[in-house]
Amino acid sequence: MRPLGFFKADRLMGLLNWVGTPLALLYIVCMFAAPWFQGDWRYVQTVWDRWQSLNVGMLAFVSSLVAFNIAKFNAEKQRERDFAAAKAFLPAALSELITYFKESAVVFQLGWEAQSGVRPDFVIPKLPQGYKDIFARCIQNADSEVGDYLARVLIRMQIHDARLRTYIGEENGGQLFTPQKHNLITYFYRLAELQALVSKVFNFARGLESFEANDLVWEDFRNAFGNLNVWADEIKLENVGSLVEFTQRAIMRNASQDL
After folding, report:
1. Same domain, 16 and 71
2. Residue by residue, what is the 3-state secondary structure of 44-107?
3. Would you say 195 and 228 are in contact if contact means Cβ atoms under 8 Å apart?
4. Count of structural domains, the chain
């Protein structure tokens, strides 16, 4: 829901329910229950007549509260239906991204194995296009936790694609090729991170598991490197260590930042 003043609409509705429901119950007790215990039918009529303006106001307030809650319920059900419709296409979009990740890993592997001055025969992976619309629809209609997770994947996808095209694009094409191995260590790590993030949401997209946005651990990266056909223990630099060590340090660093 859209913001309304200083409050979001859903928070405003929660506040109205939190305040309005006790007030409505108090009104019912004071208007209908208490007069019967304090006097006869004439006394009850006198109370109702004296509180006529309040009765009109309370009836209008309760009617509005009920109408708002019905509208909120219907909007929530519609959101769930829209998310279910978008989620049905999510597994296919994720499969396309995994294929793209594997092709990206081949590019980085060629760069890693290349000699300085000898440009490899790069084939630019084709970035899938349909996933953007599917992700956008899911983010729009999903719960905040799922939406934030998919948004994080979407942002990292854009960064990765820009990084990949820069690596094999004009900057290297117009001069002697340099493998840039220090950068490639980071590129391999970030690519495996994307692979792991996508893999974690696969079963949820298929309806097999509930969604869990746990932090990535080494096992997630190990599986990601395996799926990408990247031998992380063989990719190493003298002053950096292996890709395994680089990744494990990054995991520990990220975990310490969350504390």
Report:
1. yes
2. HHHHHHHCHHHHHHHHHHHHHHHHHHHHHHHHHHHHHHHHHHHHCCHHHHHHHHHHHHHHHHHH
3. yes
4. 2
Cα dist from 237 to 41, 243, 246, 247, whole Å: 93, 9, 10, 13
User: Which tokens sit at 104?
Assistant: 């990206």
Distance between CA 192 and CA 198 in Å, rounded? 10
pLDDT of residue 74: 80
Residue 183, C-beta contacts closer than 8 angstroms, at least 6 positions apart: 167
pLDDT tens-digit series, residues 162-195: 999 888 874 444 567 788 888 999 999 999 999 9
* Residue 161 DSSP SS3: helix
96 and 57 together in one domain: no
**Kind and range of the H or E run holding 211:** none
Residues 204 and 200: their CA atoms lie apart, in Å, by 8
Phi, psi (degrees; rounded to nearest 5) at 156: -65, -30
Confidence band, pLDDT 50/70/90 cuts, at residue 243:
very high
Last-in-domain residue among 51, 80, 109: 80
Q: Which pLDDT band holds residue 5 (cuts at 50, 70, 90)?
A: very low
- Neighbouring C-beta atoms of residue 220, cutoff 10 Å: 19
pLDDT tens string 97-106: 999 999 999 9
| Beta strands at 3-4 and 236-237: parallel, antiparallel or unpaired | unpaired
Across 22-45, average pLDDT: 68
DSSP SS3 for 128? coil
Say if residue 96 is in the same domain as residue 190: yes
